[in-house]
Specification:
Number of strands of chain B: 11
Structural class of chain A: mainly beta
Oligomer: heterodimer
Number of strands of chain A: 11
Order of helices and strands of chain B: EEEEEEEEEEE
Distance between the termini of chain A: 39 Å
Strand content of chain A: over 45%
Number of helices of chain A: 0
Helix content of chain A: under 10%
Shape of chain A: globular
Shape of chain B: globular
Radius of gyration of chain A: 13 Å
Distance between the termini of chain B: 36 Å
Radius of gyration of chain B: 14 Å
Strand content of chain B: over 45%
Number of helices of chain B: 0
Chain lengths: ~110, ~120
């Protein structure tokens, strides 16, 4: 099955720094989702994007749905220690269809 | 509170034994999913079920089996045919009938299976 290409695989940053990660695909998705997974837990939805070119914010998080429908990025501003975890992108072709996940970005924030 | 429960949190089995992982939801969701998570590989779909008494193979179904006899339950059996069963297993559910542009999948807390 297809998987999305997510980068970087891991990031080590200082508290207060901004973070950027992205996902690319060889095929089109009509919905892009970004999840966060705390250590030893299940992923939780952060942001959903369903319009090409859309830029959406949720607090310190900003995500964009690429105009080609083949990519998306997530920015985290002014990182804090509780931002630590694994961030996953996911694409969905149509409403109700399965999700395809990226490999994840492991974020470490040093206080 | 509504949610998805997976039990147990940690599970140890000897090689060659079958083991069943539990997933229960009280969200009244029709669709349920099983994913496997290995370091650096994201979430890979094992099996999914859109409705009671029906399920489909995902991308890595070999060595696994499921049943969906009740709406709220979707147990996963890891059989001895699964060559590398040690992993973190996540269950998820969603309600495809809800209005809106996307279907959020809600995840359980996961079960870490270690085969010795």
């Amino acid at each position: 099955g297809q998987q999305l290409n997510q980068s970087p695989q891991s990031m080590f940053i200082q508290e207060g720094e901004d973070v950027s990660m992205n996902c690319t695909s060889s095929s089109i998705f009509n919905t892009w989702l970004w999840y966060k997974q705390d250590p030893g837990e299940g992923p939780v939805l952060l942001i959903a994007l369903y319009k090409a070119g859309e830029l959406t914010s949720n607090g310190r998080l900003t995500a964009q749905f690429g105009i080609t429908r083949k990519d998306s990025f997530l920015n985290i501003s002014a990182s804090i220690p509780s931002d630590v975890g694994i961030y996953f992108c996911a694409g969905q072709v149509r409403r109700g269809s399965r999700l395809t996940f990226g490999e994840g970005t492991q974020l470490t924030v040093n206080p | 509170d509504g949610g998805i429960t997976q039990s147990p949190k940690y599970l140890f089995r000897k090689e060659g034994q079958n083991v069943t992982l539990s997933c229960e939801q009280n969200l009244n969701h029709d669709a349920m999913y099983w994913y496997r998570q290995d370091p650096g590989q994201g979430l890979r779909l094992i099996y999914y079920s859109q409705i009671v008494n029906d399920f489909q193979k995902g991308d890595i179904a070999e060595g696994y089996s499921v049943s969906r006899e009740k709406k709220e339950s979707f147990p996963l059996t890891v059989t001895s045919a699964q060559k590398n069963p040690t992993a973190f297993y996540l269950c998820a559910s969603t309600d495809p009938r809800l209005a809106g542009p996307y279907n959020e999948q809600f995840f359980g807390p996961g079960t870490r299976l270690t085969v010795l």
